[in-house]
Amino acid sequence: MRVAMIGTGYVGLVSGACFSEFGVDVVCVDKDADKIAKLNAGEIPIYEPELDSLVESNARAGRLSFTTDLLAAVRGADAVFIAVGTPSRRGDGHADLTYVFDAAKEIAEAMDGYTVIVTKSTVPVGTGDEVEKIVRRVRPDAEFDVVSNPEFLREGSAITDFMRPDRVVIGSSSERACEVMRALYRPLYLIETPIIFTQRRTAELIKYAANTFLATKITFINEIADLCETLGANVQDVARGIGLDGRIGRKFLHAGPGYGGSCFPKDTLALVRTAQDAKSPMRIVETVVDVNDRRKKSMSGKISEICGGRLEGKVVAVLGLTFKPNTDDMRDSPSLEIIPSLFNRGAKVRAFDPQGMDEAKKLLEGVIWCENSYDAVTGADVVAIVTEWNEFRALDLERVKSLMAAPRMVDYRNIYDPADMEAAGFDYVSVGRPPVSREAS
Asked: Is 263 one of the annotated active-site residues of the chain?
């Protein structure tokens, strides 16, 4: 089979590489000539574990290629995937579908036979209908079907998520299109992956419903963490106590500074706007958006409190800048709220992240960029762990203490044990967990 993947961002590049690993002939298309040149030279524009080797092996085998020539890529393709960005539209929070609709028009002009046009981008309910109208208007004589096939890739584990997913969702009322999609996903069918065939609008809504539910779980446990701090309870024990209930589940019950990334912030907001337009408001999701935004803005308060309420002239070491580990993605990361707030309080910031430094430098000014964790904590009055990279989990605490001006730590990810930190001589604050003395009582 032959596939054209329009867009070489996170979703397009990962999906294209994985389909080629299935044995499909994949051509990835992007208008950014510099990006295509780098991909053809073996340079991967994003950090995702194992992606570089997957791209290299399949490009060498001739199954994966990159081009700016959409016309050549689409002609003769069995399926054309739209995997372009759908950022929040400035001003109203709706998903900006400009790139999706532009891609649909160009695909319509290029296709030369029956083609399945697959929306892989995260799009509001009804977008497939609009794509179909655009293609029909441009090519009223064309044979095609428009399918919704949402992605469920987690940054940092995207290859595994594609190769061994919890499920595949395919939205189409056309049996001919479903047969093409079955053929594409046949390797997953053989390992008994659940494949859900449903209507196109339902498939579009499944993606938003999944992400907003997970964002709600995160926000719920964060509010429980706040209550735990007031009552002297331990949020990690609460999360374990409820997570062992099969109806609730353990995942996404880790208290922290709030969710970020490329999906949850924009998808929750887009669903809120979609529901409002449909006169069926989602009050829970509206609250989730508001609570999460407020949380990220308030998190620097923990650093101020541990320093006695004053940060003027204090040096804060920030470990971790990306919204989660194993990615270089800075989109809506809590660090983008915490660091400017520290500056506003008069603090100086030294920062280190294993993969996110290049992206962070484009977004944050005034930061002292450091070579490693120990460089970052040198001379610091307090260290804040914002992202739970593995290399931060086993710091040499004696060394850290000797390098700091004062042994203070704010652990936004609860990766250290309060008793261990007390034994190491640190003034230690985490999220939703009481001090050791209160825990013991």
From this structure: yes
For residues 49-58, one letter each, b for 16 or more C-beta atoms within 10 angstroms of the residue's C-beta and e for the rest, the string is: eebeebbeeb
What is the residue type of 253?
Answer: L
- Mean pLDDT over 169-184 rounds to 97
Structure confidence at residue 437 (pLDDT): 55
Q: Domains of the chain: which residue ranges?
A: 2-198, 208-296, 299-440
Tell me the torsion sign for CA atoms 420, 423, 426, 429. Answer: positive
pLDDT tens digits, 302-339 = 999 999 999 999 999 999 999 999 999 999 999 999 99
The pLDDT tens digits of the residues spanning 358-415 come to: 999 999 999 999 999 999 999 999 999 999 999 999 999 999 999 999 999 999 999 9
* Residue 91 to residue 314: CA distance in whole angstroms: 36
The fold of 2-198 is Rossmann fold (3.40.50)
Give the 3-state secondary structure of 337-386.
Answer: HHHHHHHHCCCEEEEECCCCHHHHHHHCCCCEECCCHHHHHCCCCEEEEC
Residue with tokens 């203070």: 408
* pLDDT of res. 440: 46
CATH of the domain spanning 299-440, picked from 3.40.50.720, 3.30.450.20, 3.90.550.10, 3.40.50.300: 3.40.50.720
Token pair belonging to 294: 């407020």
Is the pLDDT at 8 greater than 70, yes or no?
Answer: yes
Q: Please indicate whether the domains covering 2-198 and 299-440 agree at the CATH topology level.
A: yes
Annotated catalytic residue, options 18, 28, 178, 263: 263
Mean pLDDT, the chain, whole residue set: 95
Class of domain 208-296: mainly alpha
Per-residue model confidence (pLDDT) at position 48: 93
Give the integer Cα–Cα distance in Å for 2 and 20. Answer: 10
Q: Answer yes or no: are the C-beta atoms of 307 and 300 closer than 8 Å.
A: no
d(CA 254, CA 109): 48
One DSSP character per residue, 269-322 reads: HHHHHHHHHTT---HHHHHHHHHHHHHHHHTHHHHHHHTTT--TT-EEEEE--S
